[in-house]
Amino acid sequence: MMTRTQHTVLEPAPGTSAARPRPRSRRRWLVPLLAVVLLAQMAVAMVTTAVQQTPTIDEPVYVATAADYLHEHRLRHNPEHPPLGKLVVAVGVALADPHVDPDFTGDQTEAGRHLLYESGNDPWRLMLWARLPVIVLTLLFGLVVFVFARDLAGPVPAVAALALYAFSPDVIAHGSLATLDVPAAGFLLTSAWLLWRARDGGARLYLPSAGAALGAALATRMSTLPAVPVLVVLAAWSVGLRRTRKALPAAAVVGITAVAVVWATYLVVDPRLRWDPRGTHVPVVHGLRGLLVRLLPLPEAYRDGMRIQFGLENQPWQGFLFGHVHSGPRWYYLPVAVVVKTPLGMLALWAAGAVVLVAVRRLRPAAPYVLVPAAVLLVSAMTGSRNLGTRYAVFLPMFLAVAAGCVPTVRWRWRQVVTWGRVVSWGLVAFVAVSSLRTFPFYLPYSNEAFGGPAKTHLRLHDSNVDWGQDLGRLAHRLHGRYAGRRVWLVYKGSGVPAYYGIRASDPRRVPPREVHGVLVVSDSAVAQARGRLAQLIRSSREVGEVGHSITIYQR
Fold first, then answer.
1. Which of 25, 58, 241, 471 is the most exposed place for a label (fewest CB within 10 A)?
2. Cα separation of 131 and 232, whole Å?
């Protein structure tokens, strides 16, 4: 005789069979819908930022180099960075179709200024088009974060991971610029995800793809080189778990493919690989570094770029941390800067995610793919001498978003603990979203609530953490409105040309302090490192305003 329970299972009551699948079907489209919404808000944030910001310090060089690639097909400007990131920018430059002067012979900094401000081009339009391909790429990397987290923990935790990525102020800030930091980090994340997928079969597809992604990272920024041995070992590990004898061939496939991609990017720029280092100062590198450069099976232009990078590392860069100017590297600078500029909820979820990946048995196999590349890159960046910004660690919001997405999946013995754990996790995600939305559209100078928010970042950090020259247009609007007709004195750190935006100002450092009367405008990076006459001027002035949390206005 059939029991009531059996009857309910085998022969649902009228109307219930149609009602029961609805939650599942709703969940089926709800997760993709949430992913689309998160990426859409990220796109709006990045495009708005890109529209409103004037060129940052590095961007004109990359845009001018991209234009040179398109029109002259030569490896001349910016050899310290490989071509791929600038080829991405070149897609937008090609669509903007700017006028390029083929006879211009200045250096890369002068070339950027000449293209944007002296060739009849509209810098607002050209910069927007140059930034759009990087914005698209940043959104695609968001899909990688989502799929990677879904592979590890399921669709709902993947939404949490994507939310952390999509609301990351650092990712939004640098993903909306025509620079190389986000593309390089995103390619590395893509390589790690593809290697993880190779564990479950499909090595013939995933291993070459992972090698191509690794090669794309190497062809974008040389700072990704420390991740190469990690990812090559992971390739061997992914395949060697099933068939030991295929471990070395798997590593070889990834390594060879990566090298081939680097060569291909240089060949795309110039099929004849013409490179003349005589127009660029290429330092001689000795010791282990010099041996490493000579042994790499990469184009000579790439190896000379490495020599230039090593030369830059030997320069006495000035840093600024919590009100103190320092010269030379500080190993703790980058971790401290990350703590200041990362939302508090995100920091908590990153830490919890790292613990979960190591402690939970079913997730532990993913730890080498998520945590080890990020850790190696962070240690490498901490040893560098250029303490200039968290953009050197922009890989953290990508890799650790995947780890943090696994937190809501942890199951404890007591159901009440599980419920509260999930509530806290999603509450922290919401806290991150609110903190990020509050800083819109000033993502570059973001700092979290514990350090006073974006308005206080300049008191603790400088350069690309706060003021990278991005607010020259906003300053022009402020001066033309509130300070129209006033005498303006300007100390601006950036690549923009103030006169183009209608700013008529003098340099206060070139006259005696007693002659400086009116409005004194100083970039916050210059304020942080002010010495001598400029420091005296600032001390004897009254602060009356700020622009974009990156420029301070004084009254004299």
1. 25
2. 32
**Do 421 and 410 touch, CB atoms closer than 8 A?**
yes
492-514 pLDDT, tens digit per residue, is 999 999 999 999 999 999 999 99
Mapped onto helix, strand or coil, the DSSP state of residue 554 is strand
Single-letter residue type at 175: G
Return contacts of 330-335, CB within 8 angstroms, 24+ apart.
Answer: 330/387, 331/382, 331/383, 332/382, 333/382, 333/387, 334/378, 334/381, 334/382, 334/387, 334/390, 334/392, 334/393, 335/378, 335/382
Q: Which among 295, 286, 407, 388 is positioned nearest to 345, based on CA atoms?
A: 407
Which of 407, 529, 510 minimizes the C-alpha distance to 466?
A: 529
Give the pair of three-digit tokens for residue 498. Answer: 């103030």
Q: What angle do CA 339, 356, 428 make, to 5 degrees?
A: 50
Q: Write out the H or E segment, with its range, that includes residue 496.
A: none
What's the pLDDT tens digit per position in 515-551? 999 999 999 999 999 999 999 999 999 999 999 999 9
User: Strand pairing of 519-523 and 488-491?
Assistant: parallel
Query: How far is residue 368 from each of residues 184, 277, 282, measured CA to CA in Å?
Result: 19, 39, 37
Q: Which three-class secondary structure string do you get for 255-294?
A: HHHHHHHHHHHHHHHCCCCCCCHHHCCCCCCCHHHHHHHH
- Cβ atoms within 10 Å, residue 535: 12
Please list the helix, strand and coil fractions of the chain in percent, rounded to the nearest 5, in that order: 65, 5, 30
Residue 203: pLDDT band with limits 50, 70, 90: confident
Through-space distance between the first and last CA atoms of the chain, rounded to whole angstroms: 96
Q: Write down the H helix ranges in 73-178.
A: 84-96, 108-117, 123-153, 155-166, 169-175
DSSP string for 384-438: -S----GGGGTTHHHHHHHHHHTGGG---SSHHHHHHHHHHHHHHHHHHHHHHHH
Q: What span, in angstroms and rounded, lies between the C-alpha atoms of 444 and 471?
A: 10
pLDDT at 103: 86
Q: What percent of the chain stands above pLDDT 70?
A: 93
Q: Token pair for residue 234?
A: 């992971």
E strand intervals along 441-555: 488-491, 519-523, 542-547, 551-555
Mean pLDDT of 71-91: 96
pTM of this structure: 0.92
Are 198 and 207 contacting, i.e. CB atoms less than 8 angstroms apart? yes
pLDDT at position 243 over 90: no
Whether residue 555 contacts residue 542, with contact meaning beta carbons closer than 8 Å, is answered with yes
